[in-house]
Amino acid sequence: MYKTCSFCGVKRENIVSGPYANICYSCIRKFSEHIPKYKTETLKPEFTPIGINRYLNDYVIGQDYAKKILSVAVYNHYKRVYHNVSGYDISKSNVLLIGPTGVGKTLLAETLARFLKVPFSISDATSLTEAGYVGEDVENIILRLCESCNFDIEKAEKGIIYIDEIDKITRKTDSPSITRDVSGEGVQQALLKIMEGCIASVPPHGGRKHPEQPLIKVNTKNILFICGGTFDGLEDIIRRRLGKSRVGFKMTDEDKKSGQTLIRPEPRDLVQFGFIPEFVGRLPVCTTLKPLGEKDLVRILKEPKDALKKQYEKLFEIEGVELEFKDKALKCIARLAMEKSTGARALRTIIEDAMLNIMYELPSKRGIKRCVITPEVILKKGQPEYTKYKKSA
C-alpha cells in the first residue's frame, strides 16, 4: 500500500507511519546525517601504561623514566575516572614535573592529552594571584580548559590542565608568613581545592568574579593537573639533606637502572623550597627530567613523527623540491642549541634563521630538483647545494 511521505511528498510503498505524519526511508537517512551521534565513552584498546609510553615515544625523545611514571599515573587516573568503584574514594594522581627549560615538560602533557583525546589547556602560574588582588583568579585556569572544548562542560571535567612555572608561586620562606604573599602561598591555598576536586565557579569571560555575574559550575574531581617548573635551587636543598658525603647528584644503583640522572626530591625538600605541605600532598606523583644532550637534540630533529626535519621536508615538497639535511648540519644545529642553554626550544629558531634566505628565494627559482643543507649553510658561511632538473634534448 502506497503512502505519501510528509517530508518529501513522494508516494512510496515502504514508509514509516506515525499518528500524525509519515516518513520514508530516504528521508530518514537524509535527516540522520544531521542528528548528533551519541559517543559512548570507552577507553582505547591500547590504553595501557605500555601503550601510552609507546605513543609518547613517537613524539618525545628521551626522558624514559619520566615517561614511564607519567604512563602509570595517567593510566591509573583515567581508570579511576571511567571505572568508578563504589565504596572506594581513590585519590587523584596529579603530577609534578621538575626539569630545566626545553626538556619536554609541556610537550609530554600535550602529547598525553592528544593520545587520550581529552581537552587540554596551559596556564602560567606567574599570572595567578590570590582572590581580591591584581592578577588572575585561579578559576581562570578552568576557564581556559572550557574554552579549549567550546564550553562542553562534560568534556572539560575529564580534561588535563598543565600549570607551568609552578615553582614561581612558592612562599619566600619555609615558615608561615604573617604578611600577605598574594602570588605565593595565597595562590597555593587557592589551588588546593581545585586540584583535589570541587565544584568551581568559573567566570565565563574571565577576569574577576563579581556578584551579578553568571558563573559556570565545573566539577574538578576528574580533571588531571600536571605542574611543571625548573626549580632552581632545589638541588642545593637536596645536597644539604644528603650531607657532604653525597655532594652533587650522585646516582644510586636504582637510579642508574631507571635511567635517572637526578635524585628524586622528597616532600620535605619541596616544603623547604617554599611549598606548603598541603600543596605538596596534592601532587603525589613527582619525577625529574634530565637535561638534553647534543645526541638527544639531533634525535629530536630527526625521529619524532612531527620532527622539525620532516616539517621542512614537507614544506619544500610542496614547492616540488627534495630537501636533504646532511648529518653534520643536524649536529651543527644541535651544537648551536646547546650553546643557548634553552634545550629543544632553540632548534626551530636556529633553523628558521639559517633557512630564511633559502625559503625567500626558492619559490622564485625554476628547475630546482634538490636542495642539500650543509653545516656551512647553518653557520651562514656558504650556500646550499642545488640540483636542477636535466633539460630535455
Q: Could you characterize the architecture of this molecule?
A:
- By secondary structure, this protein is of the alpha/beta class.
- It is built from 16 helices and 14 strands.
- The strands form five sheets. Strands 6-7-10-5-11 form a five-stranded parallel β-sheet, with helices on both faces. A three-stranded mixed β-sheet has the order 12-13-14.
- It is flat, with a radius of gyration of 27 Å.
- 34% of the residues are buried.
- About 9% of the residues have low confidence.
Question: What is the CA-based Rg, rounded?
Answer: 27 Å
Query: What is the share of helical residues?
Result: 25-40%
Q: In one word, what is the shape?
A: flat
Number of helical stretches of at least 4 residues: 16
Sequence of secondary-structure elements: EEEEHHHEHEHHEHEEEHHHHEHHEHHEHE
N- and C-termini, Cα separation = 74 Å
Query: What strand line-up does the widest sheet have?
Result: 6-7-10-5-11
Which residue ranges are poorly predicted, with pLDDT under 50 across at least 5 consecutive positions? 36-42, 131-135, 174-180, 244-252, 254-261
